[in-house]
């Protein structure tokens, strides 16, 4: 039986990693073997931890390329969890598809768009092959409404890939985004 691919996306502070951690807990409580991975680029909470902004965490294996996941797979592996997929290249699609075809459930979480409102290629491609896509929202840091679908960069350089948290980014709704950008 084929595994299922679930992709969790949304802006900063929308609870993507928290949702991923809740799926991990289900496999943990069910005593099913699973593996957790994160990109080596994301060093915010240490190299070997996936951690939510609210403080929940689990051990993770750092990888620089999606193909590295395959070296850790055993016959008993039931699920693979990957956080911050926007920092991995699009070969994650083939890795996830192969794992799913072999009966392993794959859960991925990451930003769907950069702070410039450009889709992240790997996230977009993973959403396309997913059996289930969970699109999260956040509370807008400007107007306070629960309709933030965008990340807005408040400081740092102008690079599109710039790892950070609340020291660099806020979640905003489309209307407040336009206002902050001076477009409306």
Summarize the structure.
With 184 residues, the protein is of the alpha/beta class. The protein has one domain: P-loop containing nucleotide triphosphate hydrolases (Rossmann fold), CATH 3.40.50.300.
Describe this structure in words.
By secondary structure, the chain is α/β, with parallel strands linked by helices. It has one domain: Rossmann fold (3-Layer(aba) Sandwich), CATH 3.40.50.300. The chain has four helices and ten strands, in the order βαβββββαβαβββα. The chain has helices at 16-29, 92-101, 121-129, 174-180, and strands spanning 5-10, 33-39, 49-51, 57-59, 61-63, 77-82, 105-111, 132-135, 150-153, 169-172. The strands form three sheets. A six-stranded parallel β-sheet has the order 5-2-6-7-1-8, with helices on both faces. Helix 2 packs parallel to helix 3. The radius of gyration is 16 Å and the shape is elongated. The N and C termini lie far apart (51 Å).
